[in-house]
Amino acid sequence: MDLSKYVDLFLSEGREHIAELNGALAEMEHAPSSDEAIAAAFRAVHSIKGMAAAMGYAAVTARADTLETTLAQAAFLL
Protein backbone atom coordinates (compact mmCIF):
# COMPACT_ATOMS: atom_id res chain seq x y z
CA MET A 1 0.00 0.00 0.00
CA ASP A 2 1.27 3.44 -0.88
CA LEU A 3 1.39 5.45 2.34
CA SER A 4 3.03 8.53 0.80
CA LYS A 5 -0.30 10.34 0.67
CA TYR A 6 -0.45 10.13 4.48
CA VAL A 7 2.97 11.65 5.19
CA ASP A 8 1.62 15.20 5.52
CA LEU A 9 -1.10 13.99 7.89
CA PHE A 10 1.48 12.07 9.93
CA LEU A 11 3.67 15.17 10.19
CA SER A 12 0.77 17.46 11.07
CA GLU A 13 -0.65 15.19 13.75
CA GLY A 14 2.84 14.33 14.94
CA ARG A 15 3.57 18.02 15.54
CA GLU A 16 0.39 18.31 17.59
CA HIS A 17 1.37 15.33 19.72
CA ILE A 18 4.90 16.69 20.17
CA ALA A 19 3.40 19.98 21.37
CA GLU A 20 1.22 18.06 23.84
CA LEU A 21 4.26 16.08 24.99
CA ASN A 22 6.29 19.27 25.46
CA GLY A 23 3.52 20.79 27.55
CA ALA A 24 3.24 17.66 29.68
CA LEU A 25 7.01 17.52 30.21
CA ALA A 26 7.06 21.19 31.21
CA GLU A 27 4.29 20.44 33.71
CA MET A 28 6.34 17.52 35.05
CA GLU A 29 9.29 19.87 35.65
CA HIS A 30 7.12 21.93 38.00
CA ALA A 31 5.14 19.03 39.47
CA PRO A 32 7.12 15.79 39.04
CA SER A 33 4.46 13.70 40.74
CA SER A 34 1.60 14.99 38.59
CA ASP A 35 -0.36 11.95 37.45
CA GLU A 36 -2.17 14.12 34.90
CA ALA A 37 1.07 15.32 33.32
CA ILE A 38 2.49 11.80 33.13
CA ALA A 39 -0.75 10.51 31.63
CA ALA A 40 -0.81 13.33 29.06
CA ALA A 41 2.80 12.63 28.08
CA PHE A 42 2.07 8.91 27.84
CA ARG A 43 -0.98 9.49 25.61
CA ALA A 44 0.98 11.76 23.27
CA VAL A 45 3.83 9.28 22.93
CA HIS A 46 1.42 6.37 22.53
CA SER A 47 -0.32 8.21 19.69
CA ILE A 48 2.98 8.94 17.99
CA LYS A 49 3.99 5.29 18.35
CA GLY A 50 0.75 4.08 16.81
CA MET A 51 0.92 6.51 13.92
CA ALA A 52 4.57 5.66 13.24
CA ALA A 53 3.84 1.93 13.32
CA ALA A 54 0.98 2.39 10.86
CA MET A 55 3.32 4.27 8.52
CA GLY A 56 6.09 1.69 8.85
CA TYR A 57 8.51 4.06 10.57
CA ALA A 58 10.29 1.45 12.68
CA ALA A 59 12.88 3.79 14.22
CA VAL A 60 10.24 6.27 15.42
CA THR A 61 8.08 3.42 16.69
CA ALA A 62 10.99 1.94 18.67
CA ARG A 63 11.97 5.26 20.24
CA ALA A 64 8.38 6.07 21.14
CA ASP A 65 8.04 2.62 22.69
CA THR A 66 11.13 3.25 24.82
CA LEU A 67 9.79 6.61 25.98
CA GLU A 68 6.38 5.07 26.67
CA THR A 69 8.05 2.42 28.85
CA THR A 70 10.02 5.10 30.71
CA LEU A 71 6.86 7.11 31.38
CA ALA A 72 5.05 4.00 32.59
CA GLN A 73 7.91 3.28 34.99
CA ALA A 74 7.83 6.88 36.22
CA ALA A 75 4.11 6.58 36.93
CA PHE A 76 4.70 3.54 39.12
CA LEU A 77 7.61 5.15 40.96
CA LEU A 78 5.55 8.11 42.16
Structure explained in plain terms:
With about 80 residues, the chain is mainly alpha-helical. Helix content is about 85%, strand content about 0%. It contains three helices and no strands. Helix 2 packs antiparallel against helix 3. The termini are far apart.
Biggest sheet: strands, sense, closure?
none
Q: In sequence order, what are the helices and strands, one letter per element?
A: HHH
Summed over residues and divided by their number, the pLDDT gives a mean of: 93
Structural class: mainly alpha
Based on CA atoms alone, the radius of gyration comes out at: 13 Å
User: What is the count of helical runs?
Assistant: 3
Percent of residues in helical segments?
over 70%
Shape: elongated
Summarize the structure.
By secondary structure, the chain is mainly alpha-helical. It is built from three helices and no strands.
Topology:
Blueprint: H1 7-30, H2 35-55, H3 58-77
Helix pairs in contact: 1-2, 2-3
List keywords for this structure.
78 residues, mainly alpha, 3 helices, 83% helix, 0% strand
